[in-house]
Structures are given as structure tokens and as C-alpha cells.
Fold this sequence. Notes:
Helices cover about 5% and strands about 45% of the residues. By secondary structure, the protein is mainly beta. Strands 1, 2, 3, 5, 7, 10, 12, 13, 15 and 17 form a 10-stranded mixed sheet that branches. A hairpin with a 4-residue loop joins β2 and β3. The chain is elongated.
Amino acid sequence: xxxxSSRKPxxxxxxxxxxxxxxxxxxxxxxxxxxxxxxxxxxVVDEGTPAAPLASTHVQVHEDLTITMKQDMTVDSMxxxxxxxVTCRDEDKRIIDVQCNTESIANGTNNDFTYKCNPKMDxxxxxxxxxxxxxxxxxxxxxxxxxxxLQWRMSTTxxxxxxxxxxxxxxxxxxxxxxxxxxYTLENTDLTLYDVTVRIPLGDSSDAPDIQNxxxxxxxxxxxxxxxEWSIPSINEDNQTGTLEFAMNGDEExxxxxxxxxxTAETLLGGPQIxxxxxxxxxxxxxxxxxxSLSVNSYTxxxx
Length: 304
């Protein structure tokens, strides 16, 4: 389910993403000032009607998250793919340099993220100083077109890297019913997740599940498609864990899988923090707008 945030891109080269309590994430290396979150990569680079007026330079940063886990919480695979794209909206400001925070890149590298520049960028300069600048300044950026200038990715089977985990526990009661308990835990409390949905299959039965306990959010039973959807508007350190319990007729525990999870965030897992944008011809600071978004490409929990 796609979701677009109403939060508006901010403008300027301000300090980005101050964290509460100055905590250090285990693998968080990029923070956003703001975002209009979207759930697909294509939407991020779509130059449709913006949510707010954008500056002459707009920097878009997006990540897609793909996770496959087993019921026992072992990770089959977790992949993060991200990109940074620049859009120049002023004919006279098409040669620009984007300064990334080197500590955020080093933190990402330490957490197994690899970064790759567009061949038109000066890769050595980026590696040495975190500066994204054109190799050939006689060939400026196109006008009003988003150009990807940096990409990064990380793949792991380390369950400590999964930002949001689920303990899915169906238990046959021996009386022809099964009790199902699903508990989420926000492992990375530097993140705030939005529009969290947990879709649990219910097998062939169109019977409504008997909801016995729901600590966070709301539920919806789709009898036609045969699933229960648990929706939580946002998850952060204030509601770091939550539980849903229900009972169903039948004693087959595997019918409640695969569980599918979706969410968005405005904080990145490996994307670099943007410090400033300058005119590449005279190094004068340039006003810029910035949006950051993370979305789930696929997050599936399978029966063992």
C-alpha cells in the first residue's frame, strides 16, 4: 500500500536530523531534514506536482528495503538499495556541488554499505571528501530533470540489522482452535516508521478472527481475500513494542504465513547526510530543498 506524507520539504543548508538523546544507531548513517515519502523508487524521481515549493536545487534521497525472514527470526536476506538524485530548476544554476557528511558515509561503510558514483561525477573527490561534483563542468546538469548521481546498497543476513522485527507465534490449543500472537519490536529506535501494516493470512476460512488483545493501532478483516490486517499509524521509541492476539478455528499453524509487512520512514539506513550545496563555478552556497524517504519493497516472514 503506497502512502505519501504531507510533510513538506524544507529549504536550506541547516543541520540535518538532530537525534534525540544523541544516541548512535548501530547502522544508521543518514538523516533527513524532511520528506515527502513515497513507496516506490519510480515515484521518487517523478517530477510531478510537488508537495511544496522547491528550491532551485532539489536533492532527493530514497531507499528501498527488502527483507525475507523465517518465523524463528533468522534472516534469509535483507537488502537496502538507495540513491541520491539532483534536480536543477534554475537555468543559471546547473553546475552545483553536493557536500555529503563524511562521518555518515564512514558509518555506512562500517555497516557494509557500498557507494557508487555516476560516471559523470568525480569519484575520487567523493571518496576523499564526500563531495559530489561533476568531472566536466562544461557539461552542466539538465534543467528540471532528476539525475541520479550516487547509489548505495547493503546485503546481510544479520538479524541485528533488521529495523523492525516480529515474533509470530501460532499455537494449536488442542480443541480445534489456534491462538495467534504477533508482537513487533522496533529494534532501531532512531527510526520513526509510518503507515505500518501487517497482513496475516487466515487460510481458506472466511470466518472472522476472534480478536482478544490489540495494544497498538487497529485491525481490519478482509473475508473475501482471507487476511487480517493490523495497521499502526506510527512506531517510534514511545511505542517500541506492541502485540496483537487472536484466535481462529482450525489447528494448522502454517496457514498464518507468509506474513507481509509494509511501512515508510523519513530516516535512512545508509544514505549520506547532506551538509550543503554550492555553486560549482564560484563555490557560493546555494539554497536547496531536500526530501528523504525509505520504503519497503518487500518484507515477508515465512513459516519454518
